[in-house]
Amino acid sequence: MLVHSRTGKWATWSVFFVLFVPLFAVPLLVILAASFTTNWSGAFPSGPTTKHYAAATGGDSLQALTTSLITAVSASLLALTIGSWAALAAASMRRRGRRFLDALFMLPVAVPSVVVGLAVLVAFSKPPMLLNGTRWIVILAHTILVTAFAYSSVSAAIVRLDPMYEQAAASLGARPGYVLWRIKLPLLLPSLTAAAGLCFALSMGELSATMMLYPPDWTPLPVQIFAATDRGSLFTGAAVAVVLMGTTLLVLLGVSRIRTRASYR
């Protein structure tokens, strides 16, 4: 939109495709092609088949997909609640308090996720908070990892809010709780839905911390993909990866529609 000449537009699109295709499109297309093949010994796959999707959409894979969905939805809701509350609290603090909360919530992002997994494992493997070996430790780790993104997204949205609406409501006698629920949160709804979608996508693909924490009866889909490829079942693992990508994309499209409707209200 910022380029007006035809030559500039063609150059911009050319640079985009040169960067986008090899870096993003080709790896995903390779995974998609591998999920429909039985052999790949040359430059192109051979032996087209759909049998890998029978294993990817049933049995243990279906259970793992359900586990990933429950984990991602739970972690996203918890992260959105905690991150939004913290962002609203930080907005009313002085600069030093805001900096402290920023550092606190961004700390899990500043270290490798496997470090977060190890920290959660050590912290919750003894009474009184014995979560090791349960599904709750996985949900907790995912919540810790994605809350930073909810916090930063909502914080940025709060900064962009026009204080005129709150001031007008307060001048008419509205209580702080009423202003929060009926004015501030509705104005933040597009940013809240965007943060929820981001948290969901990140949780669906999380592997490093999950590998350290998951119990045998709570195996998310990324762990199953890793296990399949580790056994040498690359094509089945590719089909499971496609199912993971497709499910995540469908949920994000749904969240995007909710966000679009919220933006036009």
TrEMBL record:
<dbReference type="Pfam" id="PF00528">
    <property type="entry name" value="BPD_transp_1"/>
</dbReference>
<keyword id="KW-0813">Transport</keyword>
<feature type="transmembrane region" description="Helical">
    <location>
        <begin position="69"/>
        <end position="91"/>
    </location>
</feature>
<dbReference type="InterPro" id="IPR035906">
    <property type="entry name" value="MetI-like_sf"/>
</dbReference>
<feature type="transmembrane region" description="Helical">
    <location>
        <begin position="103"/>
        <end position="124"/>
    </location>
</feature>
<keyword id="KW-1003">Cell membrane</keyword>
<keyword id="KW-0997">Cell inner membrane</keyword>
<protein>
    <submittedName>
        <fullName>ABC transporter permease</fullName>
    </submittedName>
</protein>
<keyword id="KW-0812">Transmembrane</keyword>
<feature type="transmembrane region" description="Helical">
    <location>
        <begin position="187"/>
        <end position="214"/>
    </location>
</feature>
<dbReference type="InterPro" id="IPR000515">
    <property type="entry name" value="MetI-like"/>
</dbReference>
<feature type="domain" description="ABC transmembrane type-1">
    <location>
        <begin position="65"/>
        <end position="253"/>
    </location>
</feature>
<feature type="transmembrane region" description="Helical">
    <location>
        <begin position="234"/>
        <end position="255"/>
    </location>
</feature>
<feature type="transmembrane region" description="Helical">
    <location>
        <begin position="12"/>
        <end position="36"/>
    </location>
</feature>
<feature type="transmembrane region" description="Helical">
    <location>
        <begin position="136"/>
        <end position="159"/>
    </location>
</feature>
<comment type="similarity">
    <text>Belongs to the binding-protein-dependent transport system permease family.</text>
</comment>
<keyword id="KW-0472">Membrane</keyword>
<keyword id="KW-1133">Transmembrane helix</keyword>
